Each structure stands twice: as structure tokens, then as C-alpha cells.
Amino acid sequence: MKTMSRILTLGAVLLACSASAFAVTLIKEDEARLPAAAGGLTTRGITRGPGVKLLSPDPAAGAVKSPFAFKVAFEPRGGAKIDPATVSVTYLKATPVDLLPRVKPGLSAGGIDLSGAEVPPGEHQIRVTVQDSEGRQTSTVLQLNVAK
């Protein structure tokens, strides 16, 4: 009976760890207070590179409360495959902040999937850059609006 109890306890611990494995502080308070990036954001025109689409939070929903699910889909084109090793995720500030180490637990060739992203209130711009197996690169700026 003790063995069964230990197994159940271990299972509960593993389940709790896996459920929170992709919860992360995406942007820290002190980073949110950094000065904004200078100049306008430049984007390229039509590209055959992979698509980058913000799935959650829904961009049309307006401000969201933190923590929230942060899900980004990578959409390969023309039979190419996404190379996760080429992904970069940057918080756009006067001194850019590399967010890749924070999103790595939820990063795959299909995109980014974080169940509980912690972000301070405010408007935040995050650049996601991805490259496919054909060497085509896409860079997209995601807008996050987080309510108080």
C-alpha cells in the first residue's frame, strides 16, 4: 500500500510540474520600464518565407489580463520545414531584450505555446523571426496589450 501511495504522490508531482512547465515570466517589470525603441518599425513587403501568426491572445480582443496563453503559429510554405534553431524572439526596447531563453520550453517547429505568460500592464512589441529549410526568413512584430 505504501508503494501505491508513493506512486500516486509521484504522479501528482509530475502532473503539477508538467502543467506549469510552460508558464513563464515573458517580460519583467524592469524591462517594461526601459525606454521605447527609437524610430519606426520597418517591415518587408511580400515574402515567400514562413508565416508567423499570433493565435493567443487574440489580437482583435483588445487588452488581456496577465497571465495569459501566449501562442504563436509558424506556417511553412512550399513544402519547406521550419528550423526551430533559427527562431529569435526579441522585446523591442531601446536596448532590445532577448526573450528566446524564456520561450524555449514552449518552442517547436510548429510555433510557441506558453500556457501562462506573465507580462506587466502596458503595450508591448515583440519581434519574432523564423527561417525555413529553404533559407527564407520572416520577421513579424507582435503587439501585446496587457490590462492592469
Automatic annotation (TrEMBL):
Taxonomy, superkingdom: Bacteria
Extent of the signal sequence: 1-23
Keyword tags: Signal
Protein name: Uncharacterized protein
Organism per entry: Oryzomicrobium terrae
